[in-house]
Specification:
This protein is of the alpha+beta class and about 70 residues long. The chain has a domain at about 30-65. The chain has two helices and four strands; from the N terminus they run αββββα. It has helices at about 15-25, 60-65, and strands at about 30, 35-45, 50-55, 60. Strands 1, 2, 3 and 4 form a four-stranded antiparallel sheet that branches. A hairpin with a 4-residue loop joins strand 1 (about 30) and strand 2 (about 35-45). The protein is elongated. The relative contact order is 0.17.
Length: about 70
């Protein structure tokens, strides 16, 4: 199922420019679990009080899936 969430945030010029810079330079990170799953994440700092982190779905690591065949 696909859905869309809209969020509108008014911010200062400095906070906006900081987000713009992060988006241009972002590095997706990978978080692994001890059970062989992982998810990718993107973290955006809106300002000193607000951080949003987007997590992808947990998926089985390819090397672990091959071992189970």
């Amino acid at each position: 199922m696909s859905h869309m969430t809209s969020m509108y945030i008014s911010m200062s010029h400095e906070d906006y420019k900081a987000i713009e810079k992060q988006m241009k330079e972002f590095e997706e990170t990978t978080h692994r679990t001890e059970t062989g799953f992982y998810h990718k994440s993107i973290r955006i700092v809106l300002n000193s009080e607000t951080v949003i982190e987007f997590h992808g779905p947990n998926v089985k690591a390819a090397e672990d899936a091959e071992k189970q065949k």
